[in-house]
Amino acid sequence: MSYVFSITELDFIMQNVKVEPSPLSIGAPLVPRRTEKNDEQGTLRSVGRALDLLTILGNAPEPGLAVGDIAKAAGISKSTAFLLLQTLVARNFVADLREGNNRRYRLGHAFAQLGRRMPSDLNIGQVADPVLQQLTRETGLTARLAVSDEGYAVTISQVDPPGPFRMTASLGQRELPHCSSLGKALLFHAKDSAVREIAKRIGLPRRTAKTLTTAKALLADLQQARLHGYALDNEEDNIGVACIGAPIFDRSGTIIAAVSVTGMKQNQSARDLDRLGKIVKSHALQISTLMGYV
Length: 294
Description:
It is built from ten helices and ten strands. It is α+β, with helices and mostly antiparallel strands and 294 residues long.
């Protein structure tokens, strides 16, 4: 494959790529020194760096990042980042957004094409299990995965942390949507009319003094949850227990499941709960990405 560079790009490369004199002769052209072993190690290192760049761009805000920002985030030189980006651009894994003298990069269309080819029968439990384990290790709390069943949240996978605290709910057991973080997370995209229908059909029984028992209160709570990106059960189902859940999306953007952490409320502040909420949301996004969500 050949590459076509502009004068500006060639000047950038010549100024930043280090070369060494060839050992074959004093008058030989300047070429990089290579060996077969170094070639193999360099190739593996380049693949790892390219994947790092894709991860960085996958988490970047619009309208993308400049090469300097990408290089800094990856811990590599600008010249290395530039050459890796050009390789990824040539294969449509990265898009080069040229805006005058400002060049920014974002993920390319190749990911959308690959996402459409992902199997539609991915097992959410198998895909999510490693992420649930990671979530439990990071928070020290019980992590759960649930799917929707006629408006109820049904837990299909659970990872408990070491220690005496264990969830008493059984796998496959239905949970009320209005007082569980998993149930609320599964309602993130539901229209107000659908939420009211579920509330009327299932009911909004009081479980504790903090349970939301009106459709109006539930809708207001869901609105706040959407703004934060995670739902909260703040002792609404059990006194002394707090749960934080976030939705999981498939490649079409449809909510297919939810993930949560559960632990004793104790003296956790609103700031503590917000910190946990962001962690849960991040892990939910990891699972969504594995399910083809872009």
